[in-house]
Amino acid sequence: MASLFMGSCRFVLILTLFSTLQLLFVDSVEFEVGDDKGWVLPSSKNNEIYNQWASKKRFQINDTVRFKYKKDSVLVVTDAEYEKCHSSYPIFFSNNGDTIFKLDRPGLFYFISGVTGHCERGQHMIIKVLEPESPPSPGNQNSTSGTSGQSGAVGMAAIPSTIIMQFIFSFLGFLFI
């Protein structure tokens, strides 16, 4: 019975360590555009559905967006072409029904449907990719040294609570082996 308990503790420990490592190395996320609806012509009552969808997401560099559609296309265009809902020379074009586009830089990406009339009826989207987070600087220091009122404290980088909890559970797992 004790060996069964020891085996299950080791399994839990290995599973916890694996999930901790997975959290540390995740560097991108794939978003499915429109969630379960996909990249389709919006209903007439809500022609900003894709911009509303994108505004609820936090896109980072190296994330990908997946467009699933039938008999349509996806174009990445300039902001001027986005406003016109037309592009003769898009930055990117795909019409394979399952398009994956990598967000490879911070800033705005402009997507439109290539089917005539679809963009004007709401099948368009702007995605904002956030700037990479830089580590916090150790306080706002003045250019003159020895200024009174400055503390000697150094700012610490924030560690996500999920990583802290995984570490605690991993440590507890070692105690039961």
From TrEMBL:
This is Phytocyanin domain-containing protein. The chain crosses the membrane at residues 153-176. GO terms for molecular function: electron transfer activity. It is found in: Endomembrane system; Membrane. Belongs to the early nodulin-like (ENODL) family. The keyword Electron transport does not apply. Keywords: Disulfide bond, Glycoprotein, GPI-anchor, Lipoprotein, Membrane, Signal, Transmembrane, Transmembrane helix. Residues 29-131 form the Phytocyanin domain. Residues 131-151 are annotated as: Disordered. Residues 139-151 have a biased composition (Low complexity). GO terms for cellular component: endomembrane system; plasma membrane; side of membrane. InterPro entries: Cupredoxin, ENL_dom, Phytocyanin-like, Phytocyanin_dom. Its main location: membrane. It comes from Tetracentron sinense. The keyword Plastid does not apply. The lineage of its organism: Eukaryota, Viridiplantae, Streptophyta, Embryophyta, Tracheophyta. It is a lipid-anchor; GPI-anchor. Residues 1-28 form the signal peptide.
